[in-house]
Amino acid sequence: MVTLKHLSVEDPDDYSSPPVPDADFTEITAVTVTHRRPTPDTREMLLSRTNNLALSLVLLVGCYSAILVPALIPSDPLSGANDNQHTDMVLLNRSASLLVQPCHPGWCVSRLLSLDSSSDLQNIPVFLQSGIAADRPIPWDLAPPLGLQGCDERVARALASLTHPGLPPSLGGRGRGGGCRRCVVVGSGGVLHGSHLGSHIDQYDVIIRMNNAPVSGFERDAGSRTTVRLMYPEGAPLSPSEYRHTSLVTLVVYKCLDLDWLTSVITKQPLSWWSKLWFWRDIVENIPLKPENIQILNPEIMHKTGIALQRYTQQQRKLVPTLGASAVVMALQLCDEVSLAGFGYDLQHPGARLHYYESLSMDAIKAQVVHDVNAEKLFLRELVAAGVLTDLTGAL
């Protein structure tokens, strides 16, 4: 009985407590009930329950906020995504409706005549050939790319290496079988990214691209065929795959040495190491196309384009147009109807995508000082407003 008393009154968590005097069993029970303190485990359990309750309330409030706040306040990213999807559908519908309509012969020429500022942008020979200087005012007194000053011997060698200089039979007349022909000039602008216009682009009679703008891997937005690729040596695609489904590559002469490069590509005679030093980046030494699929752009195209741009700029120097603007003027010589895709720089949003094939931002365009992109945008915008051109991607 004594042992039971001692076991009952001794605090198992405090072994230093003095023993309780002897008492009967009833008294021991009373003492045990009256004087037992909460153990540390009990206190921790109470605190844990309090913390869990507070945490549960916080989580509950957070869940309700996550559900109710988006419903009450529209989310900007989601709204932007819906707007983009709506814009894409508008562009696709516009492009599809244009393609199902019959082609209008002489459409661009008739519209150009209504513009005094652009009436001289027609009947320009597109490709360079022997004897063209005799009956056309080619600006031989201007340096490339607006002329061919100082390039006489190199021009002669390059033309001699071409098997069919001048307008190829495939581009003669108008359209397939001599009918009405439609052109699309595919720019490199980021607006083309996600456009899904590739299948529409492939339906045009003539598809014009510039420099190394890639096709492989971007067929959904940019299409898969190329009729004419305008390029200079440093801008020529390095990958052989980019020349697949390409009918014609056309050299744009920016310096007389570019003609030596073209002759080397055609004749398979490599350039000297000294000549290679004058190119500002690596150049392709072999193009997997036959000589009959290579041409030289008539510099009068660049010259006339530059004159047209001068009306839209405050710069006094002679403007060097981009290949994109020059390609548009070239297309006006080849086709009855001309559309644009991937044109227009969004300079109001510096973080926007500059090109459809890379993540470079719009800020990078500020680094270039050769071209006047604002003047070109005004020039193209006026042609679109006059109905000369159709802007498929709507960024002008």
Explain what the structure shows.
- Its main location: Golgi.
- Residues 1-21 are annotated as: Disordered.
- There is one protein chain.
- This protein is α/β, with parallel strands linked by helices.
- Among the domains are: 2-35, no CATH class; 88-133 and 166-248 and 299-391, Alpha-Beta Complex (sialyltransferase cstii, chain A).
- It contains 14 helices and seven strands.
- It has helices spanning 2-9, 25-35, 40-72, 76-100, 107-112, 132-135, 152-161, 198-201, 219-222, 257-267, 273-276, 299-309, 323-334, 373-385; strands at 182-186, 206-210, 226-231, 246-251, 294-296, 337-341, 389-391.
- Strands 5-4-3-2-1-6-7 form a seven-stranded parallel sheet, sandwiched between helices.
- Helix 1 packs parallel to helix 2 (25-35), helix 7 runs parallel beside helix 10 (257-267) and helix 12 crosses helix 13 (323-334).
- The longest helix has 33 residues, at 40-72.
- It is globular and about 95 Å long.
- The N and C termini lie far apart (103 Å).
- Mean pLDDT is 80; it is low at 1-40 and 67-83.
